[in-house]
């Protein structure tokens, strides 16, 4: 990967032997490995057994989970917030595991639409919840730095499963809770 970054530096017209660029291929490769570490993870290892029996049947919501990803079309960052809600069905998941699920899928080349669905589907599969809702809002550098260059644009996506999809009151409760 380092050699490829060195070639990219040359192809944009820079000298990879210039003092400030000497270690850039190594640093860029290390950064890209970190930003795509989700490919090295799987749901079982991320959850790591943190599922607990519970009689709780009320909605659980975690707001404002920071998310960083790379768009699969331009490999430019998109960043934002992910809001997750679910209604347990005999099991709850460790709180930090929700953020780790977000990170696992976000740390791959992505589009926000798929990322939102993958997070919701994973939570539903792991918890067997009665319902799951995921809402994400993100700013995309591929739209801000290049192309149409719209600095204040923000994309919002949602995925509702189970009772969040079937019951408008459940969905409304979730959407109200993530606004507060």
3D structure, described in words:
- The chain is α+β, with helices and mostly antiparallel strands and 180 residues long.
- The protein folds into 2 domains: 2-35, no CATH class; 48-179, GTP cyclohydrolase I, C-terminal domain/NADPH-dependent 7-cyano-7-deazaguanine reductase, N-terminal domain (GTP Cyclohydrolase I, domain 2), CATH 3.30.1130.
- It is built from 8 helices and 7 strands.
- The protein is elongated and about 60 Å long.
Fill in the keyword field for this structure:
2 domains, five-stranded mixed beta sheet, 27% strand, elongated
The largest sheet, given as strand count, sense and whether it forms a barrel, is: 5 strands, mixed
Structural class label: alpha+beta
Q: Any idea what the shape is? A: elongated
CATH superfamily of the largest domain: GTP cyclohydrolase I, C-terminal domain/NADPH-dependent 7-cyano-7-deazaguanine reductase, N-terminal domain
Assigned CATH architecture of the largest domain: 2-Layer Sandwich
Write down the Rg.
19 Å
Mean pLDDT: 97
**What is the count of helical runs?**
8
Whole-number count of domains:
2
Q: Helix amount, in percent?
A: 40-55%
């Amino acid at each position: 990967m380092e050699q490829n970054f060195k070639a990219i530096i040359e192809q944009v017209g820079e000298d990879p032997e210039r003092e400030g660029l000497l270690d850039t291929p190594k640093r860029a490769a290390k950064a890209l490995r970190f930003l795509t570490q989700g490919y090295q993870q799987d749901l079982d290892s991320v959850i790591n057994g943190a599922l607990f029996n519970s009689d709780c049947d009320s909605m659980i919501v975690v707001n404002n989970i920071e998310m960083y990803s790379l768009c699969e079309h331009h490999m430019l960052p998109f960043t934002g917030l992910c809001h997750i809600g679910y209604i347990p069905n005999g099991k709850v998941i460790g709180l930090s595991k929700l953020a780790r699920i977000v990170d696992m899928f976000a740390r791959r080349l992505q589009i926000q639409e798929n990322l939102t669905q993958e997070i919701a589907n994973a939570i539903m599969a792991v918890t067997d919840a009665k319902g799951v809702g995921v809402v994400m809002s993100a700013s995309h550098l591929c739209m801000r730095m290049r192309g149409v260059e719209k600095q204040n644009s923000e994309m919002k996506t949602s995925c509702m499963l189970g009772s969040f999809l079937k019951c408008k009151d459940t969905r409304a409760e979730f959407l109200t809770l993530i606004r507060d």
